[in-house]
C-alpha cells in the first residue's frame, strides 16, 4: 500500500538511525563493540530493517528478548551474532536456539547444565552469555557467587563462555551512587574470575544511559537501544552526544465539521464545545498506540501549527479542535510525533504527560500502523 493511501502510518528515518549508530560508535573507544538492542521489534521501529541498518553503520552484534525475535532476524537473512537477553529454560528452546545459531543468556548453574546436556546430545558447541545480578534484582546469579558460577559453567562440555554481563538499574539517574555501586560489584565479580583458566570472555554492563554518561562503563561492548532510536534516556545526557529521532507518526484528517455550542465530543462527552467549534476527525486511535489516557491532553501539529486533541481518544479515531485552521481539508496530514515546520513533538512529550518513559511509548505503536522507511543509507 502506498503512503498516500494510508489513514495513519509510522515513518522510519533510516539515515537518522545510521547517524545515531555512528554517533554512539564515536563516543566508544575503538576496541569497544556496539551491540544494538533490537528487541520488541526494535522498540517498534521494525526489527529487520533496523538490524540491517545498524549493522551496516557500525554495530557488531544484536540483542533481542525472545527466541521468536531471533528467528525473525535469521529468517530475514541476518547473520550477525544475536544475544537473547531473556532467559531460556527449556530443552526445546535450546534446540531451537542452536538451530538458528542464536546465543542464550544463562542465569544460573542448573540451567547451564541443561543447556550443556542438550548441546552434547546435538554434538555442537554453543556460545553462551553469563548474567550477573549486581543490583537490578532481575535476571542473573548474584555477583558475589560469580566464581562458583563461572567455574561450574567452564567445566561443562559443549559450551563456550562468550561474555559475562550485568544490567544497570539506575543509569539514567543523574545521581550516580547506585550505578557506581553496581559497577563496584561488577569489578569485584571480574576480580573473582581473573585467575580461572578460561579464555577471556567479553565483559559488558552499559545500556544507552551508561554508555553516554561515562566511558568507564564501556568495557568490551555496550548494549544500546534507546539512543539508537534518537531519544535520550534522561535530559542531562543530551549535551553529550547529538541524536536524531528516527520514528515519526502521522495520520490523515478524515472529516471536518462545525459543531454548535454545548455539543459534546466523543465517548462520555468529556469535552463540550463552548462556542461554535471546528472539529477534525483523524484516523488514528488507541488501537494504533495513541494512549487513551492522553485524551484532552494531547497536542498534534497540522501545517506546522499545534492544535489540541479534544474528547476521549477512541479505538481507531480521535478528534481535534481545528478552529485556528478554518480551511483544513480532508486528507491533510496530522503529525502526532515528529517534526512539522517549527513544531517538534517527541515521544518524551507523550511520556511526560502520561508519567511513563519514552521506551514504552515507542514500543506501543501497533502493527496496524504500516512502517514506511525513508532515507535508506547507501550500501558501501
Ligand atoms: C539487558 C538489557 N541491556 C540493554 C538494554 C538497552 O537499554 P536502553 O534502551 O536503555 O539502551 C536493555 C533494555 O531494556 C536490557 O534489558
Architecture overview:
The chain folds into two domains: 217 residues, Alanine racemase (TIM Barrel), CATH 3.20.20; 99 residues, Lyase, Ornithine Decarboxylase, Chain A, domain 1 (Beta Barrel), CATH 2.40.37. The protein has eleven helices and 20 strands. It is α/β, with parallel strands linked by helices. Helices cover 29% and strands 27% of the residues. The radius of gyration is 24 Å and the shape is elongated. The model has no long low-confidence stretch (mean pLDDT 96). Bound molecules: pyridoxal-5'-phosphate. The site of pyridoxal-5'-phosphate has 11 residues, from helix 9 and strand 10.
Summary keywords:
9-stranded mixed beta sheet, binds pyridoxal-5'-phosphate, elongated, single chain, TIM Barrel, 380 residues, 27% strand, 2 domains, alpha/beta, Lyase, Ornithine Decarboxylase, Chain A, domain 1
Q: Quick one: biggest sheet?
A: 9 strands, mixed
**Class by SSE composition:** alpha/beta
* Residue share in β-strands: 25-35%
Number of helices: 11
Which percent range fits the helix content? 25-40%
CATH class of the largest domain: Alpha Beta
Distance between the termini: 29 Å
> pLDDT below 50 for ≥5 consecutive residues: which ranges?
none
Tell me which ligands are bound: pyridoxal-5'-phosphate
The radius of gyration over CA amounts to 24 Å
Q: What is the assigned CATH homologous superfamily of the largest domain?
A: Alanine racemase
Q: List the domain count as a whole number.
A: 2
Instruction: Give the total of beta strands.
Output: 20
Overall 3D geometry? elongated
CATH topology of the largest domain: TIM Barrel
Can you give the mean pLDDT? 96
The CATH architecture of the largest domain can be given as Alpha-Beta Barrel
